[in-house]
Design the sequence.
């Protein structure tokens, strides 16, 4: 019984959690298309492609768990055999990760003023991860038992390691570049802080999930606990992308209260107007800050506070 608990039991739990996250994906996708109809066609295409890949992956893992726990119920010998959908689902999880991480890499490219070094360092991890996924599927598709699949453990560990490394590196670059974009004004720096926190949260769950999958396959190699984490990885990538896109209006609403505006396109740095600086934050959530009004408002607040203190 304990063997079933940490193998097909973990397998089933992974599918259930993945299905729950897929529901969140569908809601976020509906929200995106209803709230952002004027987005560029390539962003809409990206969202549609990620949703399609996510849907196919959910269908494949559902087929896998149904085959093992229903079709082959009571046939112990078949539990050691591989079902084709268990191998193919890895490819679609790889597709989802490739699209989402490429989108985030483009944010690094724009925010770093088109730095080739920063972009290629991230993109090399993204492409390396997907290449290993393709190699894994190409080798595993000819295998028939879980015993044979165990020989690909190093490949599986490498995929999860590169996924975690890529997510962490993207978050580090975004946070560092945003930190360098500080203006010294209170309200603009508050917006920068929000974007830094948002960038960290974007890659946090996917990084944790990839690391947990890596730890699970290392510590419990004869269980399917690592598969449960891997099932959820693609869903987390999809939701992180949609959360990034759907958060723009709420951030834009916050910025209006502070005389700041957010736009999807990058804003070129300008020195034409005196007293107003425009700093480019082209990570698909760009900020234009009116530093003159902010300076006056900060100075007014300081003066008011000083008068209040003197009155007391």
Sequence:
């Amino acid at each position: 019984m304990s063997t079933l608990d940490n193998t097909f039991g973990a397998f089933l739990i992974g599918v259930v959690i993945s299905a729950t996250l897929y529901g969140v994906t569908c809601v976020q996708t509906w929200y995106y298309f209803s709230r952002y109809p004027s987005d560029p066609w390539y962003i809409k295409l990206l969202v549609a492609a990620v949703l399609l890949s996510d849907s196919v992956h959910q269908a494949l893992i559902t087929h896998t768990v149904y085959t093992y726990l229903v079709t082959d119920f009571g046939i112990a010998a078949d539990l050691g055999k591989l079902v084709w959908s268990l191998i193919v689902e890895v490819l679609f999880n790889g597709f989802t990760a490739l699209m989402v991480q490429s989108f985030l890499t483009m944010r690094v490219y724009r925010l770093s003023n088109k730095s080739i070094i920063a972009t290629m360092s991230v993109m090399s991890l993204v492409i390396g991860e997907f290449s290993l996924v393709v190699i894994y599927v190409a080798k595993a598709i000819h295998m028939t038992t879980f015993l044979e699949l165990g020989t690909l453990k190093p490949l599986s560990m490498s995929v999860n390691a590169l996924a975690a490394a890529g997510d962490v590196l993207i978050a580090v670059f975004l946070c560092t570049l945003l930190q360098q974009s500080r203006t010294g004004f209170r309200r603009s720096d508050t917006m920068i802080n929000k974007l830094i926190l948002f960038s960290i949260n974007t890659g946090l769950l996917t990084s944790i999930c990839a690391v947990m999958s890596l730890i699970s396959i290392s510590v419990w190699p004869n269980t399917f606990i690592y598969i449960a984490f891997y099932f959820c990885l693609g869903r987390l990538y999809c939701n992180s992308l949609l959360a990034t896109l759907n958060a723009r209006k709420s951030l834009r609403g916050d910025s209006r209260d502070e005389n700041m505006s957010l736009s999807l396109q990058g804003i070129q740095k300008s020195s034409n107007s005196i007293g107003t600086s425009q700093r480019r934050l082209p990570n698909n959530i760009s900020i234009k800050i009116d530093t003159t009004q902010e300076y006056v408002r900060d100075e007014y607040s300081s003066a008011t506070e000083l008068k209040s203190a003197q009155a007391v």
The mean pLDDT is 80.
